[in-house]
Design a protein that fits this description.
six-stranded mixed beta sheet, Uracil-DNA Glycosylase, subunit E, alpha/beta, globular
Length: about 230
């Protein structure tokens, strides 16, 4: 599917960003040193733009690129265990044309869904600072403006939930106050979208059974139902 010019322009701006010195240094160090199992790969080593259907009604927001995942491949949630778990679910629930995501040119296509992240550079220990998060949030806000058909935002974890809440508040569509506590299958309607919670598909959650295949599939089936107009749960 042809990517609209405004999204392509935003992609270029994201990829060229060097606003956070700590993140720039880390992503480039990882790309130069590499992991032994990926020694022959050419690492992306830059910020990672969003990916998916520009007419999507469902937006997925993660935390940040993995050091040897999207920071290596250049596509969000691609080339790591979290992405393996996520894209397999998207295929089972009808949002993806294939169950795997291994490289940016592997033929993967998303239908009615777009994936992005709160922070665009791989952070040390997977922990961006509040300042780094805030520096990156305008990109997420602009993506949401351009993805005008989005009706549901699936937030993968509490970090993404907080980031999306800040973006929605800036856009004049805040979460309720007090903000509902993040949990799996949380539903929070706003004037712009419904925010839907999902535990992050990290190995910490999937290997321990905190997040299972039926649990993540339920999230995306619910996201489709909400986009189709099924009322939010109270």
């Amino acid at each position: 599917m042809l990517r609209p010019a405004a999204l392509r322009a935003l992609d270029r701006e994201i990829v060229e960003c060097r606003a956070c010195p700590r993140l720039v240094e880390w992503r480039e160090q990882v790309a130069a040193e590499k992991r032994a199992s990926f020694r022959s790969d050419t690492y992306w080593g830059r910020p990672v733009p969003g990916f998916g259907d520009p007419r999507a009604r469902v937006l997925v927001a993660g935390l940040a690129p993995a050091a040897h995942g999207a920071n290596r491949t250049g596509r969000v949630f691609t080339g790591d265990r979290s992405g393996d778990f996520l894209y397999a679910s998207l295929h089972r629930t009808g949002f993806a044309n294939q169950p795997t995501s291994v490289s940016a040119d592997d033929g993967l296509e998303l239908r009615d869904l777009y994936i992005t992240a709160a922070v665009r550079c791989a952070p040390p220990a997977n922990k961006p600072t509040p300042a780094e998060r805030n520096s990156c949030l305008p990109y997420l806000g602009r993506e949401l403006q351009l993805l005008s058909e989005v009706q549901v935002i699936v937030v993968l974890g509490a970090f993404a939930y907080d980031a999306v809440g800040r973006v929605l508040a800036d856009a004049g569509s805040p979460l309720p106050s007090p903000r509902p506590r993040f949990t799996h299958l949380l539903e929070v309607p706003t004037a712009r979208v419904v925010v839907l919670g999902c535990f992050h598909p990290s190995q910490q959650n999937t290997f321990t059974g905190k997040l299972t295949e039926p649990m993540i599939d339920e999230v995306f089936l619910r996201a489709r139902a909400l986009a189709d107009g099924v009322p939010s749960r109270p």
